[in-house]
Every structure is written in C-alpha cells, then in structure tokens.
Amino acid sequence: MCGIVGYIGKQAAASVLLDGLRRLEYRGYDSAGISIRNGEGFQTLKRTGRVQDLYQEAMRAPDAGTIGISHTRWATHGGVTNQNAHPHLSHDGRLSLVHNGVIENYGLIKRELIGKGVEFESETDSETLVNLIALLYAAELQDPVNEGKPREALMKALRAALAQVEGTYGIALLCADMPDLLFGARKGSPLVIGVGNGENFLASDVTAFAGRTQNVVYLDDGQLAVLSQEDFSVTTLDEVAISPVVDTISWDIEDAELGSYTHFMQKEIFEQPMALENAMRGRFSQDGSTAQFGGLNIEPRELRQVDRILFLGCGTAWHACLVAEYLIEKFARIPVEVEYSSEFRYRNAPLEKNTLVFTLSQSGETIDTLEAQREAQRKGYRVLGITNVVGSTIARENDGGIYQHSGPEIGVASTKAFTAQCHIAAMLGLYFGRMRDMSYSDGCTMVSALRKAPGLIAQALSQAEKIEAIAKKYARFEDFLFLGRQLMFPIALEGALKLKEISYIHAEGYPAAEMKHGPIALISPECPTVAIALKGEIYKKSLANIQEIKARRGPVIAITDAGKEFPQDLADEVIHLPETHEVNHAVLVSVPMQLLSYYIAVERACDVDKPRNLAKSVTVE
Ligand code: M6R
After folding, report:
1. Domains in the chain, please, with CATH?
2. pLDDT value at residue 79
C-alpha cells in the first residue's frame, strides 16, 4: 500500500518521478504528491485524485530540479484530503518526507511535539515522523561535534527518530541543507534502490524505475540508505556498514506497460499461457516423470519425512492454497491444512512436528503473510514460499521456495499470478506424489497433462467474445452465486472474489451441495448462478444442483467440459471448455470466470485496474 519513488540524477526529477508514480499507482490511488528540491527549499505539489491529475498540474510549470521524492497514497491515518497527501514537510520547512507504513505510537509522539511548539497541518502519522526527525536534526546541528557536517547530523537524527517509532515504514527523505543527497529507510514496508548510471532511484518496488535501470538493491528491515547521483551507501540502524548486493531485474519495460490492451487485468488474463509456460520452464525431470524445483533448499530425503503441510495466504493466494490442499492430498496423500495468514499469526495453532509450511503471495510483501511466515519460523518450522516478485521480503526471508515467474502483475485483481500458483500447486502434488506412492507411468501422464495447460488456456481465451456477450447480458444484476464442488470449490470462491472486487457486485462462492443448507434461499430470477459442472464422479450431482436452481427460476451460467452431453436446456448460458486431466481444471476453469468478471466490470464502467478501496499489495495490517 502506498507507492514511493525518489530520484537523484541529471534529468528533471518531476517527469521521472511522475512516470514512476504512474507505474506504482496500483499500490494506492486516493491521492498523490511530489516534492522537488528547489532553490533553498522544496517545490511541493500534492492533491487528492489520481497520478494523472497530479501529472497535468505538475506539467503546467515543470520544475527543472534534479532531485525529488513522490508518493501515491492508500489512506490509513487521516481521510483522503490534500493536506493528508504526501510529501509532508517538517514544521521548519527543512525536510520533506514520503512514507509507506503505519507509525503506531504517533499519537504519543505528536502530543510531545505539540508540547514543544510544533504545529501540524495534517492528520497523518507520517507528518509526526518528519517533525520528529526535524526536531532531532535541529538539536544535532547545535552539537559542536556535528559542525559543518549536516549529513552526519541528519543520519543521527534519523536513527534516533526511527528508534523511537513503533510500527512500519518505508521512507524517502529530502533535506533542504543537502541538495545532493536522498535518504531512505525501511522496516516492514518495502524499499529498493535502483542503481543507474549517474542517477539513482529509491522506490517501493522495481516497476517504478523499469526502463531506466535493471540494477536493483533490495533493502532489508532496519537498513538506511543514502543516495547521491553517482553513489549510494547502506547502513543499519546501529551504524553497521552493509555491502549491498546488486541484483538484475529479469523483465523489461514492456512487461509493465499496457501495450495494445485497455486494462492491465485484460492483458494479464491473456498472458496466462505464457505465465504457465514460465512456471513450468526447467521444472520437469529429464525422464518426464516428475517435477523438480531448484530453490527449495531442502533435501528430498527430508521432504519424505514431512507428515503434514500447512499453506498460508490471503485473498486470492488463499484460494490457491485451497487448490494446493486438494491436489496435494489427492496426488501425494499428504494431509494439508490451509489457514488465512492473518488468523494463523495470532492463533497459536498447535502444529505437528514434521509440518512443512508454505506461504503463498504474489507480491511477497503482504504483511499478514510475512508475519505468519515469521511466526512459523520463530516456532522452528521450515517455511517455503511461492512468490512472484523476485527479491520481495517474503522471498528473501523464507527458507527456500519457488518463484512463479509470471512477470509483473499490475492489475489489482490477481489473475495470471493465481493460475500460476495453482499450476505450481499441481506440480507440487506431482513432486510429493512421486516421492511417495505415485507410479512412474502416472507421473509421466501427469507431466504431459501439465504441459498442455498453456494450450488449453489459449482455447478458453478464444471464447472471450462469447463471454463478453454473456457479461453484457448479466451486468445489471446485483447478486451472484458461484458454485463448484471439490477442486472447483476454491475456483468458485475465486470467481466470486473477482466479481466483487472489480465490479462491486455482491457475489458468494459455495460448494454446490451446500446450497440446500441455506444459500438456496437467495435464488430468484434476480440472482444469477455461475455453476461449474465438470465430467467425473460428481458430474451428475452437479447437474442436479443446477436443476434445483432452475426449479426456482434462477438464471444459470454453466461452465462445463461435457460438450454435447451437457443437457441443452438446463442452463441459460453454457461456456464449453475442452476436456482435460484434473490437474489442469483449476487453471482452465479460472479463465472464463476471470473474463466474465472483467467484461461485467467494463460494462458497468468500473475502474477495472484500480477498484475502489483496494490496493495491490497490502502492507498494513
Ligand atoms: O500479494 P499477495 O498474493 O500476498 O496478495 C494477497 C491478496 O491481497 C490478493 O490476492 C487480493 O486478494 C487480490 N486483490 C485478489 O485479486
């Protein structure tokens, strides 16, 4: 939540910052602001609304300054107002700060600062932080030891202030006294340095400087950074110098741009065949009978000792955890449990000794999942992660894991990251299964089935026009049900979540047979049901569930792989999918669900990529 971009270099900072901010807007979009070091102070512009609005205003009289900071906000403390937008200037006008995170003890600090005569303009915790730093900085400047050394004085003040605050922060800070330095620090909120040629960047994530540099340093919690045009240094809060590792970003600017698509969500839905190819690349054994993963950091012998697996995640990632539960239990016969990260971290659940923990997170920054991971590690469990964002905090802190390689996912509604997670879950089912009772030939069958997934998804995508027409017909309804059984239950939950988050339609997912135990009361001509009916053991039962809905005059959109076998008049609309091995069902059925939600949201003129109240990565509790 909240995006930060800082720049120091030779170019006009305003356009670099606004360009970066545009790419970070998915992190928060209720207000935005920019501060450029100018003359003796700062030129600061901030306002509610989108980055585009700020851009237009800033470009009316662009500032030529070459150092600046900027922010796109997702409000936590204080309403959505111009005053509460970042950057925040200190009371003496010396410092300008952007902040991502929450300062939990800001009330107490603010009262103390008010007692010392500091006046506040906003309701934010961030303004408290910048004023605290400013007051400490002013005191340090009085100290003869710091005479003529404003950098040392500010670093001391910064360290002292950060030691006082409780909570989380990723900050970028400018000081009027030092026109050639940019300061940053992080604890709990991501911050990276983009290392350029004669220019450097500070940002919440690498998309901010995509196209300008591929070189990145991921800061750890408790680290401070000082950037100049040509150089940067990193130290810890207790002044230990760090030798930073410069990594290379593996994707390029086109991956983070819309190209010919109207929305990122649309682009990402259509990127799914490639995302699945990437998730599989190099991950099958040469004999084609099992999966292999390079980064687990755990010997197969140890994995064979695992008696239970616990999956942790939030939102869509939690749905992927449920898919993993089903597939691993079915193909590997290992008991699997799934918990919401946010519940696990406070629940103190008793875990069996040989439990292996997996955290799932597209962003790798979701605070609940990060803290759940830390809690499991504190308890001595080995935690493996499935994450998309390379170098994210969850990926760096876990004991090993699997990168999804889905490419940047910018639409707030997760699509390609979800199906990649489901596909990796299927590969894990195969991997663990082959370590146990799955035969060589069953392993080979599964590998060749998994390899077909991209082509199957492409077939599902080819029905986009038909699904768009269905979406237009049903976009006016305010309530939807999504039904699926067994493996299709989490897919029904995910279908419902997609629809609610981008079109604000009330939607619920249920295992179809549960209908009779309550939800059937909702069925009426005004409540359409999206029903998944795939061939197999419970196909007939799924048809019976659809009958029950039709009997109550509920409109039905069916998704099936039964072809002509599917009774013609049973549903109002039928979306046909190709028949395939069960390991591909989760990814395949997700596609028409995503398209349906997408086109309904477009029809309702909703802001698909930036739905109200949401942000892409949830880094506050
Ligand atoms: O980055 P993560 O996978 O940890 O994010 C978890 C959820 O916040 C995320 O999946 C959220 O539910 C999305 N908006 C779903 O589309």
Report:
1. 3-102+166-249 (3.60.20.10), 261-451 (3.40.50.10490), 463-608 (3.40.50.10490)
2. 87
Phi and psi, residue 311, nearest 5°: -105, 135
Report yes or no: 599 and 471 within 8 Å, Cβ to Cβ.
yes
The pTM for the full model equals: 0.87
509 pairs with which residues across the strands? 482
pLDDT tens, residue by residue, 67-88: 999 999 988 888 889 999 999 9
DSSP 347-402: H-----TTEEEEEEESSS--HHHHHHHHHHHHTT--EEEEESSTT-HHHHHSSEEE
Interhelix angle 416-435/585-603, nearest 10 degrees: 170
C-beta of residue 70 within 8 angstroms of C-beta of residue 4:
yes
Maximum alpha-carbon separation in the chain:
88
| Host H or E run for residue 248 | strand 247-248
549, 529 in Cβ contact below 8 A? yes
Give pLDDT tens digits for 539-584.
999 999 999 999 999 999 999 999 999 998 999 999 999 999 999 9
- Ligand 1 closest atom vs CA 389: 1
**How far is residue 80 from each of residues 51, 76, 88, 406, measured CA to CA in Å?**
14, 9, 14, 33
Q: Are 122 and 200 in contact (CB under 8 A)?
A: no
Token pair in block for residue 454? 């991209």
Pick from 441, 452, 364: nearest CA to 408? 364
The tally of CA atoms less than 13 A away on the side-chain side of residue 347 is 13
Ligand 1 site-directed mutation target among 366, 403, 491, most atoms within 8 Å of CB:
366
CA 324–ligand 1 middle distance (angstroms): 16
- Supply 412's token pair: 């707030």
Residue (of 21, 1, 203) closest to 100 by Cα position = 1
- What distance in angstroms lies between residue 133's CA and the mean position of ligand 1's atoms? 34
Residues classed as catalytic? 2, 616
